[in-house]
Amino acid sequence: MVRWKKGGEEGFMKVIILFIVAYLIGNLLTAHFVSRLLYKGNIHDVGSGNAGARNAGRMFGKKAFIFTFLGDAAKGAAVIIAAKCFGFSLTVQLFALLGVILGHLFPVFFRFKGGKGMSTFAGGMLSCQPLLFAVLLVLFIPFYLISRSLTIGALGAIASIPFVMIFFSYKPVIIFIGALISFFIILSHRHNIKEKILK
Is residue 176 domain-resident? Predict the structure, then answer.
C-alpha cells in the first residue's frame, strides 16, 4: 500500500482524487494562454489546430514554442512533485502522470481538443524517473538517425517505454501504466505517423 509521509495508509479515493486533479491540471493548455495573451490569437484556429508547442512555434514563432514547451512540461513535473511530496508510491506517481497527459490530450474544457503530450510527458518523466528518461533520450538517437524525423525519433523512444521497464524489472502494474502512457501519446500522433509513411 502507498503511505503518506506522516504515516497512515492511503486509500483508493485519495488516488482517484489525485488522478482527477492531475487530469484538470492537464487541461491548462499553455498554447491556448500563450496565443491568447501574447499574440491575440486562438491556437485552435490556426495551423493544425493542435494546442501544442510545435503548432505554437509554427504559427507564432520560437518564443511561443519555448513558452509552450516549458509550460506543458511544468504541468507534468508539478503533478509528479506534488505526488512525491504527499508520499505516493512510484505506481501512483505514474498513474498521476497518465492523468495529466490525458488531461492535456483530451481536455474537457476545450472540447477534448488538446496537444499531443510530448512536453507534458517529458517534464513528468524527468521528475519521476530521471534514469528512465535518460535511457529514452539515448534510444531517441538511433530512431532519429534512421528516420531523420524528430517526431518519429521521439515516438520510437516513447514506444520503447514498456520494454525498457521490463528490462529494468519494474513491477507489472508500472509496466502496464507505462504502456498506457506510450499508447495514448502514439495515438495522438497517428496523423503525423500516416504522413511520414505516405511520404
Answer: yes
Mean per-residue pLDDT of the chain: 90
- Note the pTM of the prediction, 2 decimals: 0.90
For residues 104 and 78, is the Cβ–Cβ distance under 8 A? no
- Domain contains 91: yes
CA distances to 12, 66, 101 from 32, rounded to whole Å, are 33, 14, 16
Residue 75's closest CA among 107, 49, 44, 43?
A: 107
DSSP label at residue 117: S
What is the rounded CA–CA span in Å between residue 62 and residue 82? 30
Predicted confidence (pLDDT) per residue in 15-31, tens digit = 999 999 999 999 999 99
Q: Indicate whether 46 belongs to any domain.
A: yes
Q: Give 146-189 pLDDT, tens digit per residue.
A: 988 888 999 999 999 999 999 999 999 999 999 999 999 999 98
- C-alpha cell read off for 130: 530521471
How many domains does the chain contain in total? 1
**pLDDT for residue 199:** 58
* Domain membership of residue 170 as a residue range: 12-198
Q: What is the DSSP secondary-structure string of 75-88?
A: HHHHHHHHHHHTT-
Residue 11: per-residue pLDDT:
81
Any domain includes 7: no
The owner of cell 521521439 is 154
